[in-house]
Design a protein that fits this description.
Length: 206
């Protein structure tokens, strides 16, 4: 558990959450915050959590949830993939997301870092959608994430892969192993469906 000062006299508390709390967040928040096509089945999340490969964190103010995040861990625990990250609608734009992400960086159990899927602005269908995607990427970059050369065509959607280091600053060797780690993570996650649902690739576009 980790406390951070919020607005006024409020204290925001970050804590790792278990299965019962995950079910409540899924029912009350994930269903509302993410479209059906982006929602992982709850039983799959619970199965991964039972196996020790799904970390979930809540950010609370006076016992009320104000933000949440879920990660999928690689089998060796070196890396994680950010599965969900959201602030409750009424508090978005107040800096809660940045505060929460900074706290998570020091708590998530991935040894090396976290990969983040961000929809590519290049494949946006409208200017409004492109700007929304660029703002999302800028949010992560402004909070310590870095661009990688990895991309992924996942369920037909093109994603840029960002990386948030949880260890020492990424060196050349770290950057070279990142794409292999991305491929490994997706292979573990999708098994036999890998290649049909998920196609990681490298892009050297600057």
């Amino acid at each position: 558990m980790k406390n951070r000062k919020g607005n006024g006299d409020c204290v925001n508390v970050l804590k790792r959450i278990g299965t019962d709390e995950l079910r409540m967040i899924y029912k009350d928040h994930i269903r509302a915050d993410f479209p059906r096509g982006e929602r992982r089945p709850l039983f799959g999340m619970e199965r991964l959590q039972k196996a020790g490969r799904y970390d979930c964190y809540g950010y609370y103010r006076d016992d009320d949830l104000i933000a949440y995040a879920c990660y999928i861990l690689t089998q060796n625990g070196s890396y994680a993939l950010l599965d969900y990250f959201a602030v409750v609608p009424e508090l978005r734009g107040d800096g809660i997301g940045s505060e929460f992400l900074r706290g998570l960086k020091g708590n998530v159990s991935a040894e090396r870092g976290v990969f983040i899927e961000a929809e590519s602005p290049d494949s946006a269908k409208t200017e409004e959608e492109r700007q929304t995607r660029e703002r999302r990427i800028c949010f992560y970059l402004s909070n310590g994430a870095e661009r990688t050369n990895s991309k992924c065509l996942l369920f037909g959607v093109d994603y840029n892969i960002l990386f948030l280091s949880t260890g020492d600053a990424a060196n050349v060797q770290e950057k070279e192993r990142q794409h292999h780690a991305v491929e490994t993570l997706y292979r573990e996650l999708y098994g036999r469906a890998y290649g049909r649902l998920c196609k990681p690739y490298e892009s050297h576009k600057k």
